[in-house]
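In the laboratory, one determines a bound structure by crystallizing the protein with its ligand and collecting diffraction data. In a computational setting the workflow is compressed into a single prediction: the sequence and the ligand go in, and a structural description comes out. We illustrate the idea with fe (ii) ion.
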Amino acid sequence: MDASKLGRRTFLKGFGAAAASLVIPAAWDAEPAQARLALDGKRMARFAHITDLHFTNRPQNRYPTSHYHIRQAVADLNKQDLDFVLFTGDMFHFPADMGHEMASLTDALKGLKVPYYCCFGNHDAEGDNVAARKAFMKANIGDQGLSKGDNYYTFSPSAGLRFIMLDTTDVEGDSYHAWTGYMRETQYQWLERTLQAHRDETVFIGMHHPPITPYPMMDKLKFDAKGQQRLLHILNQFPNVQLMFAGHYHFGGRNTFGPAELLLGPSLVEHPHPYRMVEVHEMAKGRGAIAYDWHKLEMHGDEDHACEFGTAGVRSLGLMGLSYNRAGLMTLALPT
Ligand SMILES: [Fe+2]
Ligand SMILES: [Fe+2]
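The predicted complex, in structure-token form:
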């Protein structure tokens, strides 16, 4: 089946819900998130999926308080029962500032009490900031097999569960000059080898650009079309790839891609600064379940007002209106 057609159809189905949410704002605090995430069985992982921080200390109107969100998120996350945090790119807003903003973001992230993992997005990778990108990965997530110089890697948060973090800004010549997602052939080959090596585990993938464009009008930002088919061909050989996490579009949704469910993350930088909580359980031999929902940051005073009103607030309102499927449950096939 043509993945792009499947993707658009599913997303367009979500468009009805999105349109409705423009008229009826979501009841953010209607129910405590923890209650909704109550699953039976053995917990395999509980983590936060945060995407599109767009961190910058540079004064600007688009994201006037982005420097504040991650510190607030760290305080918020440290109060919760978590195993780790997953970031899916656009860590920074201005790629050219990475060199001198890195210490500030790293300092904030180091406040987390649990491990965290990240991949890069288009805002982290413009031009030739290759050295800054490698330094950021090394300072923040350690080696993780990155010593050979690429920014893709794998980690296992618990027995039987594996994450593969892709780099969708991986271009020839290490010089990225577009908003679109791209992976070199070497990364596809690495992915195939890595999946072969972990056939006996449940695999989740983290990446910045989702391989499906949510709406046709967003095609300018899309993942490389040839790459989409290459990725689909690889993933179709591995039914143990169950779930994918991505960001980039600044609104949340759910789709399918090959054997996996795809969860598009809401952006932390958009008002009301949401992120996703995910809990994975083994319910019985060979059978698991996943529950997910959104949290929003507690914002205070000037930081809140700056985002809620003005152009930043209007932009966020539109993007949050496009979001759908904020909470859900799904079953998971576990290798036996
Ligand atoms: Fe972004
Ligand atoms: Fe992006």
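Residues 52 and 90 are 5 Å apart (CA to CA). Keep in mind that any predicted model is a hypothesis to be tested, not a measurement.
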